[in-house]
Amino acid sequence: MMAKKKRILILNGPNLNLLGKRQPEIYGRLTLEEIGREIRSLAKQLSVTVEIRQSNNEGELVDWIQQAPAQFGAIVINPAAYTHSSVAMRDAIIAAGIPAIEIHISNIYKREAFRKHSYIAGVAVGQITGFGVQSYLLGLRAAVECL
Ligand code: CA2
What we know:
Layout: E1 7-12, H1 24-27, H2 32-45, E2 49-54, H3 58-67, E3 74-78, H4 87-96, E4 100-104, E5 126-129, H5 134-146
Parallel strand pairs: 1-2, 1-3, 3-4, 4-5
This protein binds ligand CA2.
């Protein structure tokens, strides 16, 4: 079995299952499935394994973050709307104690005022925001550097 340090968990928050289906002007035309293919292709080049999950449920995301250290060396997370509301996800990341990289497709600082605050940023290694699908790929590269 591949060492857990070489495994990276990619988490996606609420509504990201709609990617490619609505609001392409903000979030692009690729579906989460298609983005997943690009992520897996880069992971192969970087000699790491990725597991990609999406949930619309805050508690499920908290459970996955809590369980992550048993199987994964780092987390790349697009918390979506929970970025701006979830103390629970922030606390789970602190408790997990493995590096987390926060990513966003859109630039959250160029949008509505309520998106400018992230509960996750202060406990993440860093944040990548505004590069479209590339945010996921840059996030994966950053995570590999943290292993
Ligand atoms: O830019 C990002 O990646 C966000 O995390 C996306 C979230 C938003 O709440 C954050 O402020 C920034 C929204 C995800 C919703 O995704 C959709 C995709 C297609 C159609 C509708 C929603």
